[in-house]
Amino acid sequence: MTSLTPLQQRRIVEAVASAERRTAATLRVVLARRTDDYPYLPLFWAALLALAVPWALQTALGWHLGRVLLLLHGLLFVGLCLLLRHPRLSGRLVPPALRRRQAAQLARQQLELLGAAQGGLLIFVCEAERYVRILHGAALAPPVSSHTRHAIENRLRGDLGQGRLLPGLLLAIERCAELFEALAPQSEPVPPAQRLVAQRLVLLD
Questions:
Q1: Number of domains in the chain
Q2: Domain range holding 147?
Q3: Fewer CB within 10 Å, N side or C side of the chain?
Q4: Taking phi first (over 0 means left), then psi (-120 to 50 degrees means alpha), and beta for anything else, what does residue 115 get?
Q5: Do 44 and 38 meet the contact criterion of CB atoms below 8 Å apart?
């Protein structure tokens, strides 16, 4: 689960509720510890290295002992599988481009699942990937400028990298509230029953 404590999570929920009272838009926050465990990558690297290392030794040293090489293949594969599954090593095996693509896909899925795609705003944060994305529904008019959105994302991403997730999130929520208060002001109080039914804060493991 996310690194935030229940008290910190409550502060985020209250900040989102306060922001929603200032605008007609719906605001949701999704915190993901990671987008994927990538269980296949340690197996892939273990198989690749178990094949490459004995081949390199055979080429360099001129070994021609088939049974010894076969045994070496098996031992290396088992040993590397166990070693590369360690959390400190397995995270380094994932290409950054794959991390970003997985995180972006999960963010879009959450936008659809939470129903915010029609008239809401989603703040998506993935801690392991240090990925931050602010998405808003196509029904919001006028749309949020990419420059403004990127400025909020970059600030939150910097806070996340410095271990200041809670202050960064609270600031991002406030900035989004100010932005949407101008773009989609709350003309009159909206009964809770007419609000989009969804959690204000969603935690993903």
A1: 2
A2: 6-36+95-204
A3: C
A4: left
A5: no
